[in-house]
Amino acid sequence: MAPMGIRLSPLGVAVFCLLGVGVIYHLYAGVISSRLAAFRQRRTVDLRDLLAVSVEAAELGGREVKTVRDDNSLKEKSKGKTKEGANEPLTMGDLQSHRKMFNLLKNTFPEVTVYSEEHDNVVDKATWSREIPADILKNVKGGNDVPAESITVWIDPLDATQEYTENLVKYVTTMVCVAVDGKPVIGVIHQPFTGFTAWALVGQGSNMHARSSYSVNPPKVIVSRSHAGKVKGFVQDAFGNGTAVIGAGGAGYKVLSLLEMPSSETALIDQADVYMHITIIKKWDICAGAALLNALGGQMTTLKGEDIDYSGTPVNKGGLVASVGVDHKALLEKLPNWDPEKH
Prior knowledge:
By secondary structure, the protein is α+β, with helices and mostly antiparallel strands. It folds into two domains: 44-207, Fructose-1,6-Bisphosphatase, Chain A, domain 1 (2-Layer Sandwich); 210-342, 3-Layer(aba) Sandwich (D-Maltodextrin-Binding Protein, domain 2). It has nine helices and 19 strands. The protein has helices at 10-41, 47-70, 92-108, 134-139, 161-165, 228-239, 251-256, 283-295, 328-333, and strands spanning 44-46, 77-81, 87-90, 113-116, 145-147, 151-159, 173-180, 183-190, 197-201, 205-206, 209-210, 221-224, 245-248, 259-260, 274-277, 281-282, 299-301, 315-316, 320-323. The strands form six sheets. Strands 4-6-7-8-9-10 form a six-stranded mixed sheet. A five-stranded mixed sheet has the order 13-12-15-19-17, with helices on both faces. It has a two-stranded antiparallel ribbon with strand order 1-5. A hairpin with a 6-residue loop joins strand 8 (183-190) and strand 9. It is globular and about 55 Å long. The chain starts with 9 loop residues before the first helix and ends in a 10-residue tail after the last helix. 41% of the residues are buried. Pathway: Polyol metabolism; myo-inositol biosynthesis; myo-inositol from D-glucose 6-phosphate: step 2/2. Its EC number is 3.1.3.25. It is a single-pass membrane protein. Mg(2+) binds at residues 117, 156, 158-159, 285.
């Protein structure tokens, strides 16, 4: 019997061709998609630009914070209680500042991960002015590009909310921090009620300085006013009963208390030698301060002296010790054994 041939009708030929084209299309589409993904992963961000946007965001949020407080339109409610039992208030100042700060950063750098203390679904069209402040232009070089996927931005739209509700506005700040591969490299702390903004880019420059001298025998230690009693005992166990302990609101304020402030701001800020926190604390509270201290040769570590990773989870479980201009290791060696997760 003669072998049978296979004949395709014109319709069959067309279907076969379409199938071939489809296979080729999907193969090429996969390649193109992979290349686009790789291109997106290679996107870089100039840290000087990101510093300028961070300053603008902190000041934009600060204007919202001040307006709400000046208008007495806080509309305060509670987010719940901390592990220590302290109330966590939420105000319109927190929310309106968050909307401006978060959206400005995301609108400018959509590929960068941004974490904020607050959350809502309100979209703001805030965009970067493209202006770089003169002191940043003078002290920071451009072209310091890093991969976008290595960046984590932490923002605190209103630090010291409890004090804000009590009209203790000297403690209030808005903060932005940029971490690269988990290390804090940009810190911005803005005081809405004085208009002063502290900034730093590690290895590049800052508008802040360490003071000329610090006392360590014993140091003057600044701590959280919301549970100063427990910290006072801890500090005096470490440095002696004569150690001065200052209770203050806001992590941003406490870091500024370690630094040399402009003469116009000095009277408004307590002066301390060491900042200490002995319970769990969130990274949006402390990252900006860590970057400022690092830029000035200082340190912020856990109570055990460990570096804090500013990526991933927002919770720092190890407490903290922050200093500049002193022997940080010597401070740590005096601390009693303490587990922040158990207190």
